[in-house]
Amino acid sequence: MKFEDPLELKSGMTLQNGFALAPLTNTQSNSDGTLHEGELKWLVRRAGSFGLISTCAAYVSPEGKAWVGQLGIAEDKHITGLKRLTRSVHQKGSKIIIQLYHGGSKAELVPQKISASSDANIKEATIEDIERITEDFVAAARRAEIAGFDGVEIHGANGYLFTQFLSPVLNKRKDRYGGGIQGRARFLREVTKRIHEAVHDDFAIFVRISPVDFFANLGLLLKDSMQVSQWVAQDGADVVHLSLRSAWGAAPHETDQTPVVSRIKKAVGESAMVAAAGGIWNLEDLIKYEQVGGDIAVIGKAAIVHPDWPKQALNGCFSPILPPWNPDYLKTVDVGKNFINYLKRFPGLVDGGAPPRTIEENLKS
Ligand SMILES: Cc1cc2nc3c(=O)[nH]c(=O)nc-3n(C[C@H](O)[C@H](O)[C@H](O)COP(=O)(O)O)c2cc1C
């Protein structure tokens, strides 16, 4: 199994293995975005077994903050706590990146939300807004270097600001940031390039995208995502990280049923590595993912219940603890109270939380 081997990225960063903890929002930060003990414990507990630890989505500016308890990297005061985090993770032998985030129209906590195009209560981003936000991302990446991170991930997935620009449904702009995929990808590319220019060569850059629609009809086409992946790799990304429902699956509704990861991998060639998350629970899933060509295996939900998932899963007899999970058990694996409360919002994840979805509801989502 290749994920057991050390892996060197374009930047020169070497991971002790090809397993990564997915960025997982846990709503445990202090109200000013500084790191809370609970978040430190949650991440450090998973270091050592995962070669790469990723923080949750961290806001790069107050105007991009989307939820209470979100981690911040928007101000210098955030650096002290983050330094503790990187030091503790490094002591366990893993590398750590921070996910840089702006919610755009999903920044629910701010009085004036902005996005690619205007809508009820949402302002269309002006060129000045785009320039300011670009600076915010660059400043956040510099803070990440100071705080001792090994790299950053630009969050271009899951419906947030950059997805709003990439989506032909949400982006109706007539200027150079809209129109065809070249215009819609411009903002994400500029941020990638500017971060690449601003940081040291050995500082890794991951770019996360949603290569296909799976939870909303945003018009995200795989052929556009293949092009965007190629572009961001040219712009300085070491890794294109795909947010998928199935890490080894094909794009729904496309005639070509070649798995998404294989197609993106072919598009980027040697210029970047490909990471993907989506439904990897056990060794069988991991083998399916390895076969489609992924370089880094990203584990989300299974890592919540299994802090040592890579070691456990490689043992063929392992069967994961499937949801709904018992909150008392979650506490034993350093999933704190606020995180458990957050998980309760997801259908069927935690005992006493939102009920599971019916098959029909799943099909509709
Ligand atoms: C509780 C929870 C929080 C998440 N938070 C984030 C996040 O902060 N940033 C992000 O890019 N994706 C986030 N995701 C998506 C995961 O990174 C991952 O893509 C998804 O869970 C699919 O992988 P899995 O099937 O292994 O869980 C979150 C998912 C869950 C369940």
Helix-strand pattern: EEEHEEHEEEHEHHHEHEHEHEHHHHH
Distance between the termini: 33 Å
Structural class category: alpha/beta
Please state roughly what percent of the residues sit in beta strands, choosing from under 5%, 5-15%, 15-25%, 25-35%, 35-45% or over 45%. 15-25%
Radius of gyration: 19 Å
* Unreliable stretches covering 5 or more consecutive residues: none
Kindly report the spatial arrangement of strands forming the biggest sheet: 3-13-12-11-10-9-6-4-5
Q: What small molecules are bound in this structure?
A: flavin mononucleotide
Question: What profile does the largest beta sheet have?
Answer: 9 strands, parallel
Number of strands: 13
- CATH homolog superfamily: Aldolase class I
In total, the number of domains comes to 1
Overall average residue pLDDT: 96
**What level of helicity do the residues show?**
25-40%
Name of the CATH class: Alpha Beta
Shape: globular
Count the DSSP helices. 14
CATH architecture: Alpha-Beta Barrel
